[in-house]
Specification:
The chain has 458 residues and is an alpha+beta fold. It folds into three domains: 2-148, DNA methylase specificity domains (Adenine-n6-DNA-methyltransferase TaqI, Chain A, domain 2); 151-205 and 406-458; 214-231 and 239-403, Alpha-Beta Complex (Adenine-n6-DNA-methyltransferase TaqI, Chain A, domain 2). It is built from twelve helices and 23 strands. The chain has helices spanning 50-53, 107-115, 117-125, 138-142, 151-195, 202-209, 216-229, 308-312, 362-370, 372-381, 392-396, 405-447, and strands at residues 2-5, 10-12, 26-30, 47-49, 58-61, 65-68, 79-81, 89-92, 96-101, 145-148, 256-259, 271-272, 285-288, 293-294, 297-298, 304-306, 324-327, 335-337, 346-347, 351-354, 383-384, 388-389, 399-402. The strands form eight sheets. A four-stranded antiparallel sheet has the order 2-9-6-7. Strands 4-3-8-5 form a four-stranded mixed sheet. A four-stranded antiparallel sheet has the order 12-20-17-18, with helices on one face. Strand 17 (324-327) and strand 18 (335-337) form a beta hairpin. The termini are close together.
Length: 458
């Protein structure tokens, strides 16, 4: 294969159709969202009259290759061969670069070349503009060289690439179905845990064994008594508000309703974290942000660290370990229990810190708030500012169904057991999806180095 400048094989950003259109002729309308990621396809079904669409859009025609030149669409692989256009013509986003192959260049061959990692890396390295608005310039395509073979061989190469990629896509589709099923199963486990159907209830076991047990209601009363007796604050003790009856549905025997604030320490308030954390410091105090909280855990591998002086201004959210952390801004309802290893750390403003009493299993409360139904309920209470935001007061008064303590422990253990299996399977799926991506690039490397079709064909 020899390298040939793209400019000798194709027109770059042609502004005219080969067959001119009248103002009344319908043409496909292709916004950026109509160009699929990584598939090489676009949706040409929407149309507009040429007279209405000729200004302010990028024109292209059947067989042209379109390439998203702006970030992040370029990195996401929004490139396609234009097919099935209304009347053979289209207009699209001004962020689409158009390449019209000449008679000696197969459009699909060019598209596969553009999908290769080498081209994509080079395109990204050449992007220009302001942050968030970087674009691949015309000069990149003017300087781009294509591994060139005769048209018949190009089509053989395309056929082989498509055959291999088709097998890969079948495997990827299967993996994505598994990923979706695992997500549904995760939600089902959490739902069952919060409905009392995941493990035998304490009421059922006590009845079968002919013994008494402390019900959820009795546990809540014990917590409230302990709260009142442990009060050391200024002024008279204020009894926390009970749950709103309108928010209390049917629960299993032996369970009871409580408001979240009833399950918090008497002498520590629920609080927002650090408002302005400042610059990252290697010797600073660890700061938990929304991105560090996911699937019930705090990822401590890349925690920001802030000035001890700034952290000291927010003593109410200085962690001791065991607090419920809940995201209040953007991704509403991400939850985790602060591990003991983060004692002394603090949290960002978008994280609410709920100091739970040790009388209850904190992990069960976290599971309750991680339940998709509860996340949906809290998200519906959030309001829009610059981003979706949930008030901490709405969290404080949120209802929690409280099982007997022994049942809480069993629920937590069973949830952790099942979700650990899901975590392992999800890791395996993601590993294989990444491998499929590498295999696709391996196919393209072989294709454009002359190794994918018989040597004599090249």
């Amino acid at each position: 294969m020899k390298l040939v400048p793209l400019t000798t094989l194709a027109q770059l950003n042609p502004r005219q159709f080969t067959a001119p259109a009248t103002n009344e002729d319908p043409v496909s309308f292709v916004p950026m969202k109509a160009v699929e990621e990584e598939t090489g396809r676009l949706d040409p079904t929407e149309s507009r009259p040429w007279g209405q669409a000729r200004k302010g859009y990028t024109p292209f025609q059947e067989g042209d290759v379109v390439f998203a030149k702006i970030t992040p669409c370029m990195e996401n692989g929004k490139y396609a061969v234009a097919k099935g256009l209304v009347g053979g013509r289209a207009v699209g986003s001004t962020e689409l670069f158009v390449i019209r192959p000449g008679a000696s260049l197969d459009a699909k061959y060019l598209l596969h070349f553009l999908f290769s990692a080498e081209v994509r890396r080079a395109a990204k390295a050449n992007m220009r503009g302001a942050a968030g608005q970087l674009r691949v310039p015309l000069s990149f395509f003017q300087n781009l060289a294509v591994p060139f073979v005769d048209l018949e061989t190009q089509r053989l190469v395309v056929k082989e690439i498509d055959r291999h990629v088709s097998c890969l896509r079948t495997g990827v589709a299967a993996l994505e179905r598994v990923r979706a099923n695992l997500k549904r199963y995760r939600a089902a486990v959490l739902k069952a845990a919060c409905e009392g159907t995941l493990v035998p209830t304490e009421a059922e076991l006590a009845h079968a064994e002919g013994r008494d047990y402390e019900s959820g209601g009795q546990l809540v009363e014990r917590i409230l008594t302990d709260r009142r007796e442990s009060w050391t604050g200024k002024g008279n003790y204020k009894t926390p508000a009970p749950p709103k009856s309108a928010d209390c549905g049917k629960i299993p025997p032996g369970w009871a309703w409580a408001s979240l604030v009833q399950l918090t320490e008497a002498n520590r308030a629920c609080a927002y974290g650090v408002l302005q954390p400042g610059k990252d410091r290697d010797d600073g105090i660890a700061l938990v942000r929304v991105g560090d909280v996911n699937n019930g855990k705090v990822d401590t591998t890349e925690l920001k660290r802030i000035s001890p002086t700034i952290a000291a201004r927010y003593p109410r959210t200085t962690l001791r370990g065991g607090e419920l952390l809940i995201s209040l801004v953007g991704a509403i309802g991400r939850t985790a229990i602060a591990p003991k290893s983060l004692a002394g750390a603090n949290t960002a403003r978008a994280i609410g810190v709920i100091p739970l009493v040790t009388t209850i299993d904190a992990a069960f409360v976290e599971i309750w708030f991680r339940n998709p139904a509860k996340i949906a309920a809290m998200t519906s209470q959030a309001h829009e500012v610059a981003r979706k935001t949930l008030n901490l007061e709405d969290v404080r008064v949120a209802t929690v169904a409280v099982p007997p303590l022994a049942e809480q422990h069993r629920i937590v253990a069973e949830v952790e057991r099942r979700l650990s299996v899901i975590d392992e399977l999800e890791t395996l799926v993601e590993t294989n999806l990444a491998r499929a991506g590498r295999l696709r690039q391996s196919i393209l490397i072989k294709a454009f180095s002359g190794e994918l079709v018989p040597e004599e064909a090249c």
